[in-house]
Amino acid sequence: MGAIGGNESVQWDKMNGAEVVNGGGSGAGSLDRIQVLVRVRPLSDKEIARGEPAEWECINDTTIMFRSTFPDRPTAPTAYTFDRVFHSECSTKEVYQEGVKEVALSVVGGINSSVFAYGQTSSGKTYTMTGVTECTVADIYDYINKHEERAFVLKFSAIEIYNEVVRDLLSAENTPLRLWDDAEKGTYVENLTEVILRDWNHLKGLISVCEAQRRTGETFLNEKSSRSHQILKLTVESSAREFLGKDKSTTLVASVNFVDLAGSERASQAMSAGTRLKEGCHINKSLLSLGTVIRKLSMGSNAHVPYRDSKLTRILQPSLGGNARTAIICTLSPATSHIEQSRNTLFFGSCAKDVVTNAQVNVVMSDKTLVKHLQKEVARLESELRQPVSNSSLEAQVKEKDNQIRKMEKEIKELKSQRDLAQSRLQDLLQVVGDRDPKHQVSGKRSIRSPPSVGMPPSASRDDSSQISHDDSDHYKEVRCIEPNETGGNERLSLSAGESTSPQASNRNSSMRGNDSTASVNSRRLGEPPITLEQHLENIRRPFITKDLGSSTRNPSSCRVIGRSRSCRSLTGSTLLDEMEMEDCTPVNRSLVIFPGRPEEYQRRGSALNYDAGSETLSRAGSEISTSKGASKTGDAEFTGIGEFVAELKEMAQVHYQKQLEWEWKEHRIRPNHGWFAITFAMAIGIREETAGDH
Ligand SMILES: Nc1ncnc2c1ncn2[C@@H]1O[C@H](COP(=O)(O)OP(=O)(O)OP(=O)(O)O)[C@@H](O)[C@H]1O
């Protein structure tokens, strides 16, 4: 349900303009006070017989005054004002026309309405409500007949609350009905019969059924006293015929309740007992709850309203303080014997006057409109359902990107660290290369990368080299970084850098050389002749000579030499030994490597020879060799001639061999291949020397 909108509202406005459906007063959604009417019935025959006078007089249309001189309650008010008061001579039609119609016919305008009859037993409630219901239904049908542009559907249902049990008056079964609470509909009766009315006569017949079904009983005060609260509910649905079956079609739906309450009674007056007494207790109790709710509502506070204290107030809750327009007819007996009850009724009416309801026009969409609306709603909900999925997908993408960013940042950090380290090493190397002090070079840990020992068996040299390569992996990076800066992108230097990048590469290169011919080391440069020992030594010596000459210009030659000096770690060390191994076919002998009792002098000599073979530490190694031979300690002086250097190597080999033989002889561990190795090594040096001289 909702507010009227679109063309439907225009039609409805026109309709309202033709008829005073809303009573010309409050509109939809406005606050309305409960209309409180007072109707005084004539004295009954019994009351007249008892000689009771009429104690109440309606002095005008809104005020009723207590005229009696009977001193019941001196402090009680004598005059009561209501929306409308009807004296005993007024007909029910007047009551309806002047006090009820405005409220009751709101139902055709889509506004809920309720008409109550409240009063003591035998005060004329049923008498009044029967007439008011008939008048209302008559006017509703009259309205329908006058407005053929709209299609109406009337539905009717009826219940009674007897001893706090709800019963369907249109059902032959005497099954108690349960009440349910719904957020949209409010409190409703389960399985209540609702009949679609065909016409006015149909309704009359159903009302007759309800009268027959309702519990009544004879009391001292009323021969046909109603022992239950009766609620007749007439629902009116209307739609503009112009928009029927179209998307814009809407339906106004509202109900009017005709509530005929059971009358309050004093057991002493009604002289009830047994069942009647029990009925009276339930009646009074529920009426007391109704009075409490009205009083609470009339106070206008936000205090708790005990609607749930009785089924009567639960069912009537919308009519008392909700979406409805309400009229309460307070019925009085003017007789003296009912003065106290009449005062209570007037007090109840006085409270009800202050109760405010919030009536609204109730609009229900047609099935098509509802389907269309629901389809839109479903589409919207589906869109919302898809939205979280896309959001989650987006979140996953963002997470993945974040991971990538973190990974890249980590790589950048690592690369920066490597760059800083390389720059630091570069500075050190430049300092080492430029430093002419041999002692300083020897002591530089960064420049130490021992090539395979010349004095060791080839296999042992490879192992040693491999081990050193693993331990000094940073030095490979050092070489890789220095070469581009130093050589300016020399092609050969790149090859050297690649070879020395990793220990595995170094071993692989060494292995490849081992599988080549004896001149494999010399064929590293495509198209070049094999490099002789003399050339090796010359290449090793050249950078130092170049440096010593003070050549600040980095010509390709110097760059190439520097690059080779890095990669020549294998060329001049292990490669040379590999060549020797291949030439002599000397079996691998690891005894020198793993020999535990190796003399210290031997080790020192081996180390000296290593330096001698290494290009980077050539001057340093040479320095030791020269020292041992009493030669000059300067690099330039050490390499004044290739022949002299080769001679030194020969001598070193002999010294090495002699030392080794001496030591092994002492230890009784002479093995033939040791001698073969030394002899072969010496011969190899001699052959190289001869070759170099030929070349
Ligand atoms: N305005 C009236 N004019 C003429 N007779 C009336 C009027 N009101 C009530 N009566 C008569 O008074 C008697 C009691 O009326 P009614 O049964 O309607 O009272 P009640 O309030 O419904 O009583 P209860 O609560 O016991 O059901 C009936 O015989 C009824 O015809």
From TrEMBL:
Stored InterPro entries: Kinesin-like_fam, Kinesin_motor_CS, Kinesin_motor_dom, Kinesin_motor_dom_sf, P-loop_NTPase
Superkingdom to which the source organism belongs: Eukaryota
Ranges that cross the membrane: none
Keywords: ATP-binding, Coiled coil, Microtubule, Motor protein, Nucleotide-binding
Compositional bias ranges of the Polar residues kind: 497-523
GO molecular function: ATP binding; microtubule binding; microtubule motor activity
Coiled-coil blocks: 364-432
GO cellular component, as recorded: microtubule
GO biological-process terms attached to the record: microtubule-based movement
One Pfam family matching this protein: Kinesin
Residues that, per the record, bind ATP: 119-126
PROSITE patterns for this protein: KINESIN_MOTOR_1, KINESIN_MOTOR_2
UniProt cross-references to SMART domains, sorted A to Z: KISc (SM00129)
Residue ranges, compositional bias (Basic and acidic residues): 461-483
Region (Disordered): 432-527
Occurrences of domain Kinesin motor (ranges): 33-355
The family this protein is said to belong to: Belongs to the TRAFAC class myosin-kinesin ATPase superfamily. Kinesin family. KIN-7 subfamily.
Name of the protein this chain belongs to: Kinesin-like protein
Protein's organism: Triticum aestivum
